[in-house]
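Hey, can you fold this one?
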Amino acid sequence: MFGIPYIISAISAPFLGMFIDRYGKRAALCCLSSVILICAYSMSMMMPQCDKCHNEVYPLVATGIGYSIYASAIWGSVPYVVEPHTVGTAFGLTTAIQNVGLVVAPTIVGVIKDKTTTAMTAGHGDKYHFVFAFFILINLIGLGLNLTLYYIDVTHNDSVLDSVEKEKPAPSNGEQETDEN
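Sure. Predicted structure:
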């Protein structure tokens, strides 16, 4: 079941990418993805513990949708906010930051689970309650940062992340493209 977010993301990301290419709205979609993920983790946190039921499918589907919206919007934003000669460096830096998060977050989740499982098992409650609370907190921080990104884009960057790059007109029959380098 925990492969569901990745299957949903793999299926929907190309279609979301086409939507973003056509309509833009990258910063707003980053905010939307944070809201979807907050809702998904809140649903997971509030669901009753159940070993034989599949009620976790719905939050996992929502998580996949949130992941794919965010990935499609944020990766497509990089070329819009850096100089063309620094796009490779920007993608490299973005990947490095993402990988730091992928190293640190599971360690934090493990510590939270280890520290809270004993207390939750002894009493009542779900042993993942605080893990979901951590994910909600991370996404609330992300939402705050995404709203800041949206504000900066609108007020200082002429809403470049909302824009759609127009295609260059094809040269007419008699014209040839020249390289100005």
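The mean pLDDT is 86. Let me know if you want another pass with a different chain boundary.
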